[in-house]
Amino acid sequence: MVPVRVLTVAGSDSGGGAGIQADLKTMLALGTHGMSVIAAVTAQNSLGVQGAWELPVEAVRAQYRSVVDDIGVQAVKTGMLASPELVECVAELLAGTDAPVVVDPVGVSKHGDALLAASALDAVRTKLLPTATVATPNLDEVAQLTGIQVESETEMRRAAAAVLSFGPRWVVIKGGHLDSGGSGAGGSGAGSAEAVDLLTDGSEEHWLRAPRHDNRHTHGTGCTLASAIAAQLAKGQTVPEAVRAAKEYVTGAIAAGFALGDGIGPVDHGWRFRTAEGADSPARP
Fold first, then answer.
1. Is 126 tagged catalytic?
2. Active-site hit among 8, 42, 131, 218
3. pLDDT confidence of residue 1
């Protein structure tokens, strides 16, 4: 049988912790066949991004058409797109593809290196986000896109409404960078003991909580979550089901993150293979 097929359109991470490499590892771990459109190449390691080069629009379009027209896709995930021209190209391609789309509006790397030109922000808002089944901004990306500085769980709801106004069907406001949680309608006041995300389509809300692990090796977290959501959507799960399953997977990957090089190491995409339970069923949803 042909496995479920998921496509990532993103940048390459030469260190293997984020970007295309993280996406493909995640897709494999969740029992799907990952395919890729490389939009940019980075020289990157545990210490940061030493260089980045976007690919020509023609190369990105050709890769996409090559995969979609012959093999077909059941979900698409986007990551680093670098420039306004690439954002607009990918948005146009996505608009003509009949599959769920997960947009990770990558703006900066884990180390604070810019991965999206400031001039591309408007294209992300007006072209890319309207194609999204689910958008997955972290708090820094929320600030870039909306100007809202989220400092409590209560403010995550306002941030979600602002992102939804750009057109995605659902948004996950990732609260991993939140220093302390509020005790508002969605909050428990648990603060930094929990990593809390808000999933909403503007009418229903899902507050997703997990223990916050004391592990600095979290490179690739955002790419991994978005790819996991795409993999679960491709397998036929609803958006709330897919996001919950992805949150569980990425929480385990963070807990198992490991040192690599002299800086921040990656999450462990294969953590389920390295546990007694996961060894028997690494592709469980």
1. no
2. 218
3. 86
